[in-house]
Amino acid sequence: ETGVTQSPTHLIKTRGQQVTLRCSSQSGHNTVSWYQQALGQGPQFIFQYYREEENGRGNFPPRFSGLQFPNYSSELNVNALELDDSALYLCASKGDRGSGANVLTFGAGSRLTVL
Amino acid sequence: GESVGLHLPTLSVQEGDNSIINCAYSNSASDYFIWYKQESGKGPQFIIDIRSNMDKRQGQRVTVLLNKTVKHLSLQIAATQPGDSAVYFCAERNYGQNFVFGPGTRLSVLP
């Protein structure tokens, strides 16, 4: 059973640019969530996808968008990058049966630095 | 709005002692809580969970206590080891909605 994998692990962008982060969910998991974790803080919920549709969103502007694909992999897109977007972006997946329906399994994250 | 906070941002304990990490939550409607451990350079890792209809749950060397009256959650780690050094987050879920994480407590284990 593979875990949650994210790419890239690190990247540097400049203000105004766009970025796409990718995530492969754990096998058998059909729900994926994205979190932003600023340095020294807890993860903040961005949005969640279930069967390719967004079914929950946190307090993030529309320039944060996502996709979930039929194989349950996912992308996070951020347009018009700002300095405050510098953070660790975490992808998490969960299933819909038993304990897997509750517990989020996290990837190691993508560290984004905006200059 | 929902929020989850921690009483102490840092905690230092001697190796072999017990650790207690506290968490206050504000949403009385939250039905499920999880403690996560995050080591440097890694994503959060599940430690233990508890539903709102329980007040205590035990795992291997860890115990979670839930006091719904004062909206307080704690994580107890028995015989703390160097490998327990990490940042610990509590997270609450409001009836199937997203998880809200606290700011975290950094646990340092002293030799």
Verbal overview:
- The complex is a heterodimer of chains A (115) and B (111).
- Chain A is mostly beta strands.
- In chain A, 0% of the residues lie in helices and 50% in strands.
- Chain A has strands at 5-7, 10-13, 19-24, 31-37, 44-50, 53-57, 64-68, 74-78, 87-94, 105-106, 110-114.
- In chain A, the strands form 2 sheets. In chain A, strands 2, 4, 5, 6, 9, 10 and 11 form a 7-stranded mixed β-sheet that branches. In chain A, strands 1-3-8-7 form a 4-stranded antiparallel β-sheet, with no helix packed on it.
- In chain A, β7 and β8 (74-78) form a beta hairpin.
- In chain B, strands 2, 4, 5, 9, 10 and 11 form a 6-stranded mixed β-sheet that branches. In chain B, strands 1-3-8-7-6 form a 5-stranded antiparallel β-sheet, with no helix packed on it.
- In chain B, β4 and β5 form a beta hairpin.
- Chain B is mainly beta.
- Chain B has no helices and 11 strands.
- Helix content of chain B is 0%, strand content 54%.
- The termini of chain B are far apart.
- At the A-B interface, β5 and β10 of A face β4, β5, β9 and β10 of B.
SSE order and pairing:
The complex is a heterodimer of chains A (115) and B (111).
Chain A: E1 5-7, E2 10-13, E3 19-24, E4 31-37, E5 44-50, E6 53-57, E7 64-68, E8 74-78, E9 87-94, E10 105-106, E11 110-114
Chain B: E1 4-5, E2 10-14, E3 19-25, E4 32-38, E5 45-51, E6 56-58, E7 62-67, E8 72-77, E9 86-93, E10 99-101, E11 105-110
Parallel strand pairs in B: 2-11
Antiparallel strand pairs in B: 1-3, 3-8, 4-5, 4-9, 6-7, 7-8, 9-10, 9-11
